[in-house]
Design brief:
This protein has helices at residues 2-10, 56-67, 72-79, 101-109, 143-150, 153-156, 167-172, 186-189, 193-196, 211-222, 234-238; strands at 40-51, 90-94, 115-120, 123-136, 139-141, 159-163, 179-180, 202-206, 228-231. The protein has 248 residues and is α/β, with parallel strands linked by helices.
Amino acid sequence: MLAHAVQRSLGRLQRHSTRIAPFRTGRPSSSRMAARASSADRVVHVAHILLPLDQEPKAKELEEKLAGGAAFEELAREHSTCGSAKKGGELGWLSRGTFFPQFEAAAFAAPVGGITRATTGRGLHVIKVLAEKFQATIQQMNPEELYEMIHNPALLEDVQLVDVREDFEFSTSRIPGFKLMPLSRFSEWSGDITARLDPSKETVVLCHHGVRSMQMAQFLVSEGFTNVKNVVGGIDNYSRVDSSIPLY
């Protein structure tokens, strides 16, 4: 079903509005780590009515009804062939690079409240943009930057270090200062993440190779964290810079 594919593509629904704050400017600079402004990505909350490719007259008819004040949710429930029809066509929050390019192009070009249309391999989509917001962009931190941070107390000031590997991995090889929050126990700590970590502070996330940490970084950004960095290549990559950290 298209609705299931959409949910996999879009990931977790973003539930809170985010306000992007700049990085702190009081931090010392270096040749490999300079203070950089936090940037933001626009995401849009969308709903759609999916029709077969040969139903362009029906799409025009629905657009006319919508222009006349008809409820999008009701038309979606009645006419959409997507599994999202039972939810009034709602697909959730859409970020660039996560869905059909034609769909994204139309959705991001439309204003909030606007109706637009796109054609994809799935069919004709009559799209409504329900809302928009801006969320922080995840930055990538190389192991040299992390090494410099770990070995310079001034750079560690007000930084949160999070390791999302498993307990056995953490006991095998760890970097001092990182707090263990296994991604496999997501349900245990995700509900009160803003009580466990400060969304306004710089947060560096680490795993074995950088995949799980990227998932964690995406979750943090969706929860309103404004300064999130993912360690590229994880602890495996970092251990090639810092010989005191064992490979595994």
